[in-house]
Amino acid sequence: MPELPEVEALAQHLRDHAVYRPVARVDVASMSVLKTFDPPVSALVGRVITGASRHGKFLSVDFEDRPDSPALHLITHLSRAGWMRWHEQASSAPPKPTGRGPLALRVHLDAVGGPGFDFTEAGTQKRLAVYLVRDAQEVPGIARLGPDALEVDRARFGELLEGHTERIKNLITDQRWIAGIGNAYSDEILHAARISPYAVSGRLDEQKVDALYEAMRTVVEDAVARSVGQGAASLKGEKRSGLRVHARTGLPCPVCGDTVREVSFADRSFQYCPTCQTGGKPLADRRLSRLVR
User: Fold this and answer.
1) Is the residue at 114 inside a domain?
2) What pLDDT score does 38 carry?
3) Membrane-spanning regions, if any (predicted)?
4) Which of 10, 64, 284, 285 has fewest C-beta within 10 Å?
């Protein structure tokens, strides 16, 4: 799943390539991807892109306002298998709206068949969501977001932890608590902070809270620095190359050399290092369906 660093890099890619370009046409290849109907996507035709921004893990393409119409925002949540792909040329033939292929929505810029970008989704579980709104707060997921992981300060971070009894792995990936962190970077943050994924959030002492906050800022900021400037096609590989424990089950921990372990549940999993995080003890694989959202 694209997380804060990748979404920020995609937004920067659009700022570098799409700003000041008008929309020539919008093709909807999967009707289920659109979660709004007013205004219709045809309202984008002729509008100029003025910017691209990020709300947690949501990507927003921002369009000019007009005397008779306010600014519009094309917002997507890429979910687990979604992606944004830039193209210099595309087919001018409208796709059939069957929703069977990876293409979900295509935006032609300057001229039909010219440059632009696609929202795509691999696999059969279609969860990618696209909204066309006048205000980003109209998107329910954005309205519920907690403070951004790169904007919250240490004092506020400590306040957010107080009174919580959830496992820290659960809380740090809850977008209502803090926005932008998902399964992969939460594994990296907890490893860097040397904290067990099963630690109870509200029971962390001040030293652990300090370590968690510093790890969050360092891991996310480093990932943003590596990602921004990368082409959209290379971002996934860049993300994998920077991971120390996530998706590295069975490999040696780069810090201590212990074997990275995994806890699996449903169609997800998380990874950790026993020596660095749990005093050398493997975690019990229990109550997993409630661990990560």
Assistant:
1) yes
2) 93
3) none
4) 284
Place of tokens 């799409």: 18
Which of the residues in the chain have pLDDT under 50?
287-293
Q: Which two tokens stand for residue 147?
A: 């403070």
* Angle, in degrees to the nearest 10, between helices 206-227 and 154-161: 120
In the three-class reduction of DSSP (H, G, I as helix; E, B as strand; rest coil), residue 160 is classed as helix
Which residue is listed with tokens 């780069």?
A: 254
- Tens-digit pLDDT profile for residues 124-172: 778 899 999 999 999 999 999 999 999 999 999 999 999 899 999 999 9
Q: Which long-range contacts (CB under 8 A, 24 or more apart) does 138-145 make?
A: 138/36, 139/55, 139/58, 139/75, 141/56, 141/58, 141/77, 141/175, 142/55, 142/56, 142/58, 142/75, 144/175, 144/176, 145/55, 145/56, 145/175, 145/176, 145/179
Angle at 165 (CA atoms; ends 164, 169), nearest 5 degrees: 90
Q: Provide φ and ψ at 189, rounded to 5°.
A: -65, -45
Final residue before a domain boundary, out of 115, 143, 171:
143
Q: Supply the pTM of this predicted model.
A: 0.91
Domain assignment present for residue 148? The answer is: no
- The two three-digit tokens of residue 77, written as one number: 């949540």
Other C-beta atoms closer than 10 Å to the C-beta of 272 total 26
Cα–Cα distance, 52 to 12 (Å, whole number): 7
Same domain? For 45 and 68 the reply is yes
